[in-house]
Specification:
single chain; 400 residues; alpha+beta; Alpha-Beta Plaits; Arc Repressor Mutant, subunit A; 3 domains; 5-stranded mixed sheet; Helix-turn-helix domain-containing protein; RsbRD_N_dom
């Protein structure tokens, strides 16, 4: 049979589907023609070829909906353009031809969509792998600069600008930390824009990289008046999830340049570690709030000596040093207001003042005396860092 009547089908179907290339009809049109003219059912190899067309369409960026429109339009046009000799068959023959065309259409569309989905999943896995490698290199800060800048560009990151990093740690084990990132990513992108923002996971933590200008965080040269709104945004959204709470979020300072992300990440990671060591209650940990602790922790021998020299005499108390150190910590945290400290400790004001007096008599440092207060408060911070008195201070500090 002369098939000149088919000449306009590919171009017409392409127009109907919004300009999808007719090349994706290869292998499909012959099946339609055979089904309409001789009632032939599609072969497995032919359906597999259509599945391959779906993969090619996905790799070319053609949406699956438009690809399906292409196939539907082609089937409609083939049926409408059938030569008169086919239409003049008896009713049963026409019905059989229509059923054969519908079978081809059904199987071909399903195969096309399946191939498109397979390719889409592969592209997503590949992108996730590339994204994961990029995040690892950004956070390590040891990759070649020009290569790093080039790899970051497709993800919308301009590494010449200042960025900051937030790390979110779940309070309970999650079956998949990645599940927490999908909802968070939508909110973060909506809040801070779709460029210079990256949400990922690393070592069981949610990692958010954001442009400092968008989050309101100043460059380190501008001081530490604020670290912006990134921490609050991340914590607020993660706290909505049914799993993982309570979340703790640590925010690094904003640093410029390709390696600024690695610096901010290290600050945020150190913030999580320090918050755990210090038994901090705050769900949002900012770098500026931990600078004093970092200075103290940097000189371990001096810190050991300070805690031992100032607080070790408290071990002579009847209940040991623990209750007195706890009272000092609450007293300082409450702005040196005994009534507030008593409420926090669930003690009477008289009990608190008695303990403070015991500290004075045992150590020689008076918590009520501003001249002594700084030494005591620094020693208490050091005790938290060292987990003292639960952990023993090395003998080297005792003998110094």
């Amino acid at each position: 049979m002369d098939e000149a009547w088919l000449a306009g089908v590919p171009e017409g179907a392409s127009k109907d589907s919004g300009g999808v290339s007719p090349e994706f009809l290869a292998g499909y049109l012959p099946m339609l023609v055979d089904a309409a003219t001789i009632g032939r059912a599609p072969k497995r190899a032919e359906i597999d070829a259509v599945r391959l067309q779906g993969r090619r369409a996905a790799e070319s960026g053609v949406p699956v909906g438009r690809g399906v429109d292409l196939y539907l339009s082609a089937a409609r046009r083939v049926w409408a353009e059938l030569p008169a000799i086919v239409r003049q068959r008896d009713r049963n023959a026409v019905r059989a031809a229509a059923e054969a065309v519908l079978q081809v259409l059904d199987e071909a569309v399903a195969a096309f969509a399946d191939g498109h989905a397979e390719a889409g999943r592969e592209l997503i896995r590949k992108e996730e792998s590339v994204r994961r490698d990029l995040v690892d290199d950004l956070l390590r800060g040891d990759a070649h600069l020009s290569e790093l800048v080039e790899r970051a560009e497709p993800f919308g990151l301009d590494l010449t600008r200042a960025h900051q990093v937030a790390l979110a740690q779940p309070g309970q084990r999650l079956p998949s930390i990645a599940a927490a990132t999908s909802a968070l990513e939508r909110v973060v992108l909506d809040r801070f824009g779709d460029r210079d923002v990256l949400v990922a996971t690393k070592d069981g933590l949610v990692v958010v990289i954001a442009l400092a200008e968008a989050t309101g965080a100043p460059d380190t040269s501008m001081g530490l008046a604020t670290t912006g709104s990134l921490g609050k945004t991340v914590h607020s959204e993660l706290s909505r999830l049914r799993r993982g709470s309570p979340w703790r979020v640590a925010i690094g300072r904003a640093h410029p340049g390709a390696y600024g992300i690695a610096r901010s990440y290290e600050e945020a990671r150190e913030g999580l570690t320090m918050a755990a060591r210090m038994h901090l209650d705050s769900p949002i940990v900012e770098t500026r709030d931990l600078l004093t602790y970092r200075v103290l922790a940097r000189d371990q021998p001096a810190l050991n000596d300070l805690v031992y020299s100032v607080l070790h005499p408290l071990r002579q108390a009847r209940g040991g040093a623990g209750p007195l150190v706890e009272t000092l910590a609450a007293y300082f945290d409450c702005g040196c207001v005994a009534t507030a400290a008593a409420a926090r400790l669930h003690l009477s004001v008289r009990a608190v003042t008695y303990r403070l007096d015991r500290v004075r008599s045992l150590t020689g440092f008076d918590p009520l005396d501003p001249a002594h207060r700084y030494t005591l408060q620094t020693a208490v911070l050091g005790a938290k860092l060292l987990d003292w008195p639960e952990r023993r201070i090395p003998d080297s500090a005792a003998s110094s």
